[in-house]
Amino acid sequence: MTDVILETKHLTKEFKGFTAVSDVNLQVQRGHIHALIGPNGAGKTTCFNLLTKFLVPTSGHILFNGKDITAAKPAQIARQGIIRSFQISAVFPHLTVLQNVRIGLQHRLGTSFHFWKSENTLNRLNDKAMELLAQVDLTEFADSVTVDLPYGRKRALEIATTLAMEPELMLLDEPTQGMGHEDVHRVTELIKKVSAGRTILMVEHNMSVVSGICDKISVLQRGAMLAEGRYDEVANNPKVMEAYMGTTAGELEGAHA
User: Fold this and answer.
1) Using CA atoms, how far apart are residues 181 and 164, in angstroms rounded to an integer?
2) Could you tell me which residues come within 8 angstroms of residue 199 by beta carbon, excluding any fewer than 6 positions away?
3) From residue 152, how far is each of 157, 179, 187, 222, 231 by CA, in Å?
């Protein structure tokens, strides 16, 4: 049996009579890149918010490494190794690329976000920070101010900052959204590269990205699980085609999740 790192059991979230996530049973296998897709309004982001505890489930359970984390708070979830990307480094647009990654590394010293710590203390983290920047091809941008980075490079920095938090499970929320073709390709290759030895769960609208790197795909529709499997299985599923208002697998390629 394949090792399950994250599992939801009958996960449900209701908002004043509206069910955004309905009875979702999700299993993410350790070491996989797993995509959560679906038409607009399918409940993908709500599901992510439940997994990272920015929302509290109405009912159901969330298990991480077999341990029930349903009642845990966001900070506790992060300490256990579930890190959601694309909401960390953007908070510090006027720091340099190196400084952003260094802040992510501060938890190693037990001084997370203690900005008054001496520069000497933080300089101890420079080597590791540069190592992470090399992983995401940002070495030459180390001294650049984050706000000045091209869009695709900012996304690469966000991945580096997430890696600095030592995630066991990375949650990537639409990592290629708003990107041109060249940036999409670069970030896709980057996700594939950093997935070695890690597990990634991603919400992604670009089906060519999903088909290229994901081991398993879960499709949500109106908050419920519609289909699950490898890309070819999902793309040829009549229910999925109907949900995307297409008639062929080829049309799913261009659909937005």
Assistant:
1) 27
2) 5, 6, 28, 29, 30, 31, 32, 33, 34, 168, 169, 170
3) 9, 7, 7, 31, 25
Pairing between β-strand 59-64 and β-strand 4-15 as defined by DSSP bridges? antiparallel
CB 41 within 8 A of CB 35: no
Strands 224-229 and 33-37: unpaired
Per-residue pLDDT tens, the chain, 257 aa: give them.
Answer: 459 999 999 999 999 889 999 999 999 999 999 999 988 888 999 999 999 888 999 999 999 999 999 999 988 898 899 998 854 445 588 999 999 898 888 765 554 555 555 666 667 788 899 999 999 999 999 999 999 998 889 889 988 988 888 899 999 988 888 888 888 998 899 999 999 889 999 998 888 899 999 999 999 999 999 999 999 999 888 888 888 755 444 445 544 44
| Start-to-end CA span in the chain (Å) | 30
Domains assigned to the chain: 1-87+167-257 (3.40.50.300), 89-164 (no CATH)
> From the CB of residue 89, how many other CB atoms can be counted at a distance below 10 Å?
26
Burial class (CB in 10 A: 0-12, 13-18, 19+), 31: middle
Look-up of token digits 């979702």: 24
For the entire predicted model, the pTM comes to 0.86
Q: How far is it, in rounded angstroms, from Cα 228 to Cα 223?
A: 14
